[in-house]
Amino acid sequence: MADDAYCFCSPDRHSRLGAALAAVGALECAETPAVHGWLQAHGVSAASEHVRILPAEAEAFIPRDAERLPVALSEEETLRVQQECAPQSVTDMEGELLEFRETPQDWQALVHRALTAGIPAPRIAHLTGLDPQVIGRLTM
Length: 140
What we know:
By secondary structure, the protein is of the alpha+beta class. 40% of the residues lie in helices and 14% in strands. It folds into 2 domains: 3-85, no CATH class; 90-138, no CATH class.
């Protein structure tokens, strides 16, 4: 495996660059000592909206002053990162949020994707029935 993606810390909590690391789902690299140490050094958790991931081919879009960490991904993980970084319409995302009420699984990843798509936390709470405070904790 080569460096297939870059994790970076985005100072702008509303940045839509890349995908929130937590929105991509479980990645093997997220469990490595290197990633744990990098997160700890920056004082963030993997669940933070500030921790973003981009495919390696999009490295030029990472802000120059952002701390970045190259990570290796499996072929399946690389595909998930690429899909998560692709733009999704707000209408499609809101449809997924409404479907959540019937199958409330992977809710954190769903909320991260919705926040990344630009849907405000109060709207997410309204569509999913989740507690707004729970959603607010994910944006920290």
